[in-house]
Amino acid sequence: RHNLLTEAAALLQPLDAMDLADPVRRQVAHVRAILALRGNDAALARSLLEQSGPLHANDYAYYYELGNVCDKLRDPAAAMQALGEAHARHVAELKHATPEFFTPAALPLPGAVRKLTPEEFATWPSYRAPDSGDSPIFVIGFPRSGTTLLEQMLDAHPQLQSMDETPFFERLAGKLRSHDPRILDDLSVLRQYDCDELRKKYFLLTAERIQRRADVRLVDKNPLNMLWLPMIHRLFPAAKIILCVRHPCDVVLSCYMQNFRSSVLGAACENLERLAAAYVQAMQTWLQHAAVIKPDALVSRYEDLIADTATQTRRVADFLDLADAAPMLRFDQRAREKGYIATPSYSQVIEPVNTKGLGRWQAYRKYFEPALPILKPMLDHWGYSTDPA
Predict the structure, then answer these.
(1) Among candidates 377, 247, 264, which has minimal Cα distance to 302?
(2) Helix (H, G, I), strand (E, B) or coil at 138
(3) How many of the other CB atoms lie within 10 Å of CB of 87?
């Protein structure tokens, strides 16, 4: 995640002369496979993984790695077989830790917030709040929709500063929930003092993650903040929000290939059909809230950003009232300078813009057939085609 690949390989070399126990030998092989994949030698990575095998019976991380290697080798059948093994083991573990996520009544994306109605929103009192320049810039969108790429572009601008992805609003909601669960169902009960204190807590939480630079605007990138628009608006009504959108099928495939640390996302990725339903659930929640609240929001399409990066970064800069968009084009250099990158896209964002991820789902089309009817409302809404061409 620090992208120090040469240094990592050097650290492994002394192990070659050692008589390693079998579990350690397997671990070393797995790390070598990851390094081989990062060095664009997917064939070597697959050979190392298949020769070593998993560390133990429930080693789902091994199967995620193997699935991604097979994907790079353009072997969809082997990739889906490995990913099926990964999710079966991952879900078995999650069912012990969070059984409530797998009950018949559980939503595809657990922990969703209740939708705000226009009548309820009309009862919200107006309070003093920061203007857009003193509010965070929120980058949202379903995971794997290009949020990290856009965040790194913004962070490359000298007037902006991003931080590691952290569920700040989930934590604030937890505090309100512990005080009185009914508050989250009716945010109109929050007083000026309450909103001020919640904003103060938000900035204290962000200060734990990043040392703020003077005279810069904060970028808060967290994909599933798209579910927390009512609370975001309650605390930062003038905030600018950028919604990242990408072809839903590419999003679902990319999520299915990802070993998420979040138990919520791990549960949502149980299979392609549930994952498609989770995507629709999250997007419909955002669209419903946005229609009621009408936030100051911009939609950034991943495909457009890739196709014409200069024009799209200029569009984003204009939305954020930034005079110069040029620094955003040097995001890959900035990402390499940053060191540790916490999100799953840590290896992609150090590369220049490329089209590798566009239309990748088409190679897996036969596996997507049951999920396509589920995704159809969002495919239609955003104007994405499933035409093989």
Answers:
(1) 247
(2) strand
(3) 24
Helix (H, G, I), strand (E, B) or coil at 361: helix
pLDDT of 1: 76
Inter-helix orientation angle 192-209/168-179, to 10°: 140
Q: Which two tokens stand for residue 239?
A: 């905030």
Instruction: State the DSSP string of 184-224.
Output: GG-GGG--HHHHHHHHHHHHHHHHHH--PPTT-EEEEE-GG
Query: Directed axis angle between helix 60-72 and helix 76-97, to 10°?
Result: 160
What the block records as the tokens of 268 is 């949502």
Q: Residue type at 163?
A: M
CA dist., res. 267 & res. 103, Å (int): 11
For residues 188 and 233, is the Cβ–Cβ distance under 8 A? Answer: no
Residue 355 half-sphere exposure, CB side, CA atoms within 13 Å? 5
- Output b/e per residue, 222-253; b: 16+ Cβ within 10 A: bbbbbbbbbbbbbbbbebbbbbbbbbbbbbbb
Q: What pLDDT shows up at residue 201?
A: 96
In whole angstroms, give the CA distance from residue 92 to residue 73. Answer: 28
Q: Is pLDDT larger for residue 214 or for residue 361?
A: 361
pLDDT at residue 346 tops 60: no
Structural contact between residues 148 and 345, judged by C-beta atoms closer than 8 angstroms = yes
Burial of 355 by CB count in 10 Å (0-12 exposed, 13-18 middle, 19+ buried)?
Answer: exposed
- Reading the block at residue 72, the tokens are 């790079």
Q: What's the CA gap between 264 and 170, in Å, rounded?
A: 12
What is the Cα 336 distance to its own chain's centre?
A: 19
CA angle, 383 as apex, 353 and 302 as ends, to 5°? 15
Rounded to whole angstroms, how far apart are CA atoms 97 and 385?
A: 38
Locate 315 and state its tokens.
């569009």
The SS3 assignment for 380 reads: helix
pLDDT score, position 334: 74
357: number of CA atoms within 13 Å, CB side? 29
Number of CB atoms found within 10 A of residue 32's CB:
19
For the question of whether the overall pTM of this predicted structure is more than 0.85, the answer is: yes
